[in-house]
Amino acid sequence: MFEKVKEGLGKVIEKISVRELSEKELDEVLWELQLVLLQNDVSLKVAEQIAWSVKEKLVGEKVRRFSDVRGMVREALREAILEVLESGGKIDLFGILEEKKRRREPLVMVFVGVNGTGKTTTIAKLAWLLQKKGYTCVLAAADTFRAGSIEQIEKHAKRLGVKLVKQSYHADAAAVAWDAVEHAKAKFINAVLVDTAGRMQTDRNLLEEMKKIVRVADPDLKVFVGDALTGNDAVEQAEKFNEAIGLDAIILTKVDADVRGGTALSVTYATRKPIIFVGVGQGYDDLEEFDPKWFADRIL
Questions:
Q1: Taking the domains of the chain in order of start, what are their residue ranges?
Q2: Which of 238, 147, 237, 154 is nearest to 197 (CA)?
Q3: What value does the mean pLDDT take over residues 187-191?
Q4: Which tens digit of pLDDT belongs to each residue from 274-287?
Q5: Which fold has domain 3-88?
Q6: Which of 26, 45, 124, 276 is least surrounded, with the fewest CB atoms within 10 Å of its CB?
């Protein structure tokens, strides 16, 4: 995980640490830092922000006062990365769940993203996690567009032993979401997880359908599911979905296979929304709460 970016950042840390650098020499090495970040799916604005932040922490007398220069450089880079990751804020999902539970209302989550990111599987993983923590949930098969989508989520629902609300293909997706929310209210179910049609961010008709689902279901959280391996494509997708419906949170999939790591930084910076979970495998247990400190430590 993150092998390529770790190697690149390690070389930059080494260059800064071996001797006292003038500001000009430091600028040259920090340009190398930006290149390493750019090569690892970090957007230009984020790379510039991190390099600027590292320079602010290292320039001048600060460096001379420390014997462990390498440790100081590493810590400066770690802090710069954390500043980006924490710019999206934080969502206490289980705190929200508890509050909704006290009010005897369901937590409604709508999941959006393009085809192939693992959105439906991610919903199943979250349902598994919620059940492990003692919450009840219902799934909504609001992807009535893609062939096989209803059968896919139906298989997950059966394996998990949870209720699935569905209609036929080409039915009104917003109606499916509405039915699921009403079912949860009637049965005092804790969470509604709404699957939607995977759509390209440029598909105007499907985007309008997604907006209708959001209006009808009135979700507490609108979650973008992105593939960490797609790099800046995931960032562009998240930006478009954020413009269309106003995202609340992000889940990144396939992080276990990601050698670059830059998608997490770029997508948080671009949307100013927090990553709440990452997918790290194919099993239902392979969904982990995202911790910015864990991420920063792993890539360094």
A1: 3-88, 93-290
A2: 147
A3: 96
A4: 999 999 988 999 99
A5: Four Helix Bundle (Hemerythrin (Met), subunit A) (1.20.120)
A6: 45
